[in-house]
TrEMBL record, chains A, B:
The keyword Transcription applies. It holds the Pfam family LacI. This is LacI family transcriptional regulator. Residues 2-56 form the HTH lacI-type domain. PANTHER family: LACI-RELATED TRANSCRIPTIONAL REPRESSOR, RIBOSE OPERON REPRESSOR. It comes from the Bacteria. It comes from Thermogemmatispora tikiterensis. One of its GO terms (molecular function) is transcription cis-regulatory region binding. Keywords: DNA-binding, Transcription, Transcription regulation.
Length: 334, 334
DNA sequence: AATCATTATGAAATCGTTTACAAAAATCTC
DNA sequence: GAGATTTTTGTAAACGATTTCATAATGATT
């Protein structure tokens, strides 16, 4: 309600002095500072952020652009981002794009219009390509997906290695015919697929195209892909999915076909969720350090806001293999 | 980059005319309108929302204040709110308060400072009490929790009746000694508890304090409460929890005690989640129309923004009982 | 064609800050 | 205590839109 003008009048000073007190400038005599502080308190003055932003040509707001906040991975990230942003006095604007490049582009424009200080996003291919050239006008940090030769800060998982370890876990437990259901439209799915294939080769097996599916990262897609795999003339002994949505769909399919885990089929995936430990047997998976990812991304972003010219960084975090369920190796029945 | 001034200059008109074109005012001749539109396109002009907000003393931003976005109920709500807000040209600011009244108050102030058009929130008791008097300066819609005599728009579930139906489902399947683990610090938990007690009485049973627990709405709290209940000298035959986090904790406890569902113990809850249908046997529950809640809340909010003096409304939505698992009634073994 | 009513346009104020610059006050130096 | 130096303060111009009010242009009416 009260503006800086009224504070100035109440304290018998100019608005400039009030502003200086607000900014903790050293160039204001203690006596005046006291008077201003008193006036601020009495009038319950709070600076108008809009006015401040207009003047500064920048807000204390950051954007988080994800495909769908209901994906547990992004839910966890968003919590970390909000926590970290809040600590630094920033607010968080949330956007869902459903992996739609058009929506991504629209939201990036919204962000520009809103004068955000920066954006954390997980772009699809086309948008990622655009990011390489596009002068956005705000800081950008990419998470979850790598953009090969873009000069942008990134926070990523060691996807290839994580998928390798996850696949190896299956192989070491006696599974050989392993199928992979991967999220399409992102480097992440491809990288994880690469790790899966590397592991197969390392164990003397040949990846076959028949057992690898790229689908939209949704429960229904995972369900459909898994059904098709299970109905193959020679069905796989194990399923690897690259995120929790696909895993949920795959598990549904397994249930529908009445297959017993882990005897008749195994299921491993990425991303820890509430349900992964609640189903029986619990699911072995690669846990991503989601909170760390969100926190790191926010820190990188705010550092770049403070210092736009600093060299870009690419932080790679390690996934953690959580082995669950009976650890007894599988008895091959072939 | 380009400002309204440059557009005006390029079109050979005043900024006022450009502004009128932007606002679709009828008071501008077609010839001029064309020129302005052309200049806008050529300069790729986009109005600066900050400047607009400063002038209008209001942004096109709304706030969503929840305890924790990672609670699947709020995750789903947030998606609906964002979708609906976006359709109307509004952006969404997300805040997590962890049920902490202090944080709620801080975030409400942040919202005021940010000049949001309105806020959707799910307040704890103290904040709810404050809302009754507090002149916030922006529109407010309360979700999930009722504030008895406040003059605020609300979107709620028929908690008492839903809990009644959920409990009745247990009773009709032969369960008699039913315990309830309820979320504390909200009217919602209390209302659901009331419905539970009503159902018991309707079936000639007396609610006992020993079987009702109020705990923070977290997995760990649900786990701990469930363990204590299961370890009672005379343990319950069924557990009812009032949200999915408590249910997850309770299920963990059930697993830890090695009890078989539904023969040795039953579990029912509120809130549909991915895992509720994936665990075996799947969980019977009351599904809240989360998307509808979020959408309705946003609509109410934006209507109030447009027309601040309209009478407040209280929308009550119905929960849906999803019966799952073997529907064979329980054979009492007592 | 002159008058009046109506519509279209622009100049300038405004929203609430910050900050460059100038002026005033305090401090220092001899 | 006068002058030079430093520090403190205030004035006023931004930032980029919208809108009031006055004026200019148009159209209608005789």
């Amino acid at each position: 309600m009260a503006s800086i003008k009224e504070v100035a009048r109440a304290a018998g000073v100019s608005t400039a002095t009030v502003s200086r007190v607000l900014a903790n400038s050293p160039h204001v005599r203690p006596a005046l500072r006291e008077r201003v502080l008193k006036a601020i308190k009495e009038l319950e003055y709070r600076p108008n952020l809009i006015a401040r932003s207009l003047r500064a040509q920048q807000t204390t707001t950051i954007g988080l652009i994800v495909s769908d906040i209901r994906n547990p991975f992004f839910t966890a990230i968003s919590r970390a981002v909000e926590d970290t942003a809040y600590e630094e006095g920033y607010s968080l604007i949330l956007c869902n794009t459903d992996e739609d490049p058009k929506k991504e582009s629209i939201y990036l424009n919204v962000m520009r219009d809103a004068n955000v200080a920066g954006v954390i996003l997980s772009p699809t291919g086309p948008t990622a390509a655009g990011l390489r050239e596009l002068e956005t006008g705000f800081a950008v940090v990419v998470i979850d997906r790598s953009i090969p030769d873009a000069d942008v800060d990134m926070v990523l998982l060691d996807n290839v290695d994580s998928a390798y370890r996850l696949t190896r876990h299956l192989l070491e437990n006696g599974y050989q015919r392993i199928a992979a259901i991967c999220g399409e439209r992102s480097t992440t799915g491809r990288e994880r697929c690469a790790g899966y294939e590397q592991a197969l080769r390392a164990y003397g097996l040949l990846p076959t195209a028949e057992l690898v599916r790229f689908v939209p990262p949704q429960i229904e897609a995972g369900y459909a892909a898994a059904l098709r795999l299970l109905d193959l003339p020679e069905p796989p002994e194990a399923l690897l999915t690259t995120n929790s949505l696909l895993a949920a769909g795959a598990l549904e399919a397994i249930r529908e076909r009445g297959l017993r885990i882990p005897d008749e089929i195994a299921l491993v995936t990425f991303d820890e969720t509430t349900w992964a430990s609640l189903v029986q047997p619990p699911i072995t998976l690669i846990e991503q350090p989601t909170y760390e990812i969100g926190k790191t991304a926010t820190e990188l972003l705010l550092q770049r806001v403070a210092e736009p010219e600093r060299p870009t960084r690419r932080v790679i975090l390690k996934g953690r293999l959580l082995v669950r369920g009976s650890s007894a190796p599988r008895v091959r029945c072939g």
